[in-house]
Amino acid sequence: MTGEEGLPRPRGLSAWTTRRWLRVGVAVSLVVLALLGLTGAWVLSRTASISEELVDVQSSALTTSIRLESALLNQETGIRGYGATGTADFLTPYQQGLADEKTHTARLAELLSGDADALRDLKTVEDAAETWQQRIARPIAASPPGTPSPLSTERAAEGKDSFDAVRAAMTGQQEALRLDRANGREELLATMATRNWIFTAIALVIIALAALVFEGLRRGITTPLDQLVADARTVTGGNFEHPITATGPADLRLLGAEIDSMRVRLVRELAFTEEARSRLDAQAADLKRSNAELEQFAYVASHDLQEPLRKVSSFTQLLKRRYGGQIDAKADQYIDYAVDGANRMQTLINDLLDFSRVGRVHSTHQDVDLDAVLKRTLSVLSDAIEESEAVITQGPLPTLVADPTQMGMLWQNLLSNAVKFRRPGEPPRIHVEAERDGELWRFAVTDNGIGIAPEYAEKVFVIFQRLHTKDAYNGSGIGLAMCKKIVEFHGGTIGIDPAYTDGTRIVFTLASAPPEGTGHEGTKHEGTKHGRAEQTP
């Protein structure tokens, strides 16, 4: 037979679990204690029986026999006095002796009911007393009072012999009773000695049993568990190569084997994790370097394109002013296309330049009153707000530790989008609000514009993605992408609220303080401007 993982399955006592050992140990202990209890109960019962026999029967019988003898002596004394003097007062002890004799004889018969030899001795005493009564006591007691009884003199020798027989019978009975009592006392002492030895043995057996139970628990449970705990602590302390050695019952050994198997798997997982983390660190370093190069490339490319683009725009505008209307209509249209393309390229490069500067140039964190920043943004957008007849309301806004320039860019992009993407023939209604959400602040910019379909909720935050053509809504498609970059740079998230269907609600969070690693001072390059953004996928 084999167990898990091909290991040989233990047989015999080695296969016993802790529960089985405990059951067997408890059962054996209960059997031993029951036997000891029965033995102790039998010894106590035997001692009590012998003691009761000695006190209630043998000693009482001897005492009653002595009282019977005293009653007979009272009878003999009374009869002898009455026979010698004829005085009636001597009959009183005689008559009392007769009553006492009857009482004591009945009591002795009751006490000795189970002892044939003792009853035979009592019968001998009764017969001797009856003979004395018949031949001496009753005839003398029947004599008239006042004068001595002639029978007392005539039967004096017979009376003496007859009562001596009574005395002899009483002496024999009492000797037998004394012997029985002595034997009973010896038996009681022997039984008590046996009882003491048995209880001493019971105590020793209980102590030995307790020692065996304690030692069994120590060797079979506590010591293996202590060893298992010590090995587990060594492993949890960081020494994952330390093997876990399991001892004790089968279930504890199985537990130890499972823990050691888990340790082995953990070692393998740790090795794999370390290797993966090393690869990830290398990839992260490569990615960081690549991102830095890309940002630098975007900045340099957009910056270096400014000069030739300005020349193209200037000369195309110059061509339009000087030769507009002098050539055919096709030429005027081509010149307009060139001027418009140059202007849009200028806007796109400026927006790309602003996007590349987020987190790289504008990163001076300080206390920023978002309420004041919002008011400045509204002032910048006043022309567009007045032209569209937009109504912008707001709730209280907090003061955060952030980059003031980036906060201005964030508000400007969000509000300009809300104004731009309005419903035809309906003035924009825009509301800005903020509330505390644990360690973050949750902001919402709600408008009554054309809205965003749920399937484009993620796409609108991708750079250069648009939902509308440039003829419908102007812009470069970089505004919401810049908002996402600013919010994430400040430790927050941004998204579209899908539950709001009367327009668009953009929800974003900002931390009260910037995340670690984003609080360094940056350098503001000349030519930086607020990016113009619009709602684009």
Your description of this structure?
The protein has helices spanning 18-85, 91-111, 116-142, 150-154, 156-236, 250-323, 329-357, 370-380, 382-388, 404-420, 479-489, and strands at residues 366-369, 391-394, 399-402, 429-437, 440-447, 494-496, 504-511. With 537 residues, the chain is an alpha+beta fold. It has a 5-stranded mixed beta sheet with strand order 2-4-5-7-6. A two-stranded antiparallel sheet has the order 1-3. Helix 1 (18-85) runs parallel beside helix 3 (116-142) and helix 3 packs antiparallel against helix 5. The model is unreliable at 1-8 and 519-537 (pLDDT under 50).
Write the layout of secondary structure elements.
Layout: H1 18-85, H2 91-111, H3 116-142, H4 150-154, H5 156-236, H6 250-323, H7 329-357, E1 366-369, H8 370-380, H9 382-388, E2 391-394, E3 399-402, H10 404-420, E4 429-437, E5 440-447, H11 479-489, E6 494-496, E7 504-511
Parallel strand pairs: 2-4
Antiparallel strand pairs: 1-3, 4-5, 5-7, 6-7
Helix pairs in contact: 1-2, 1-3, 1-5, 2-3, 3-5, 5-6, 6-7, 8-10, 10-11
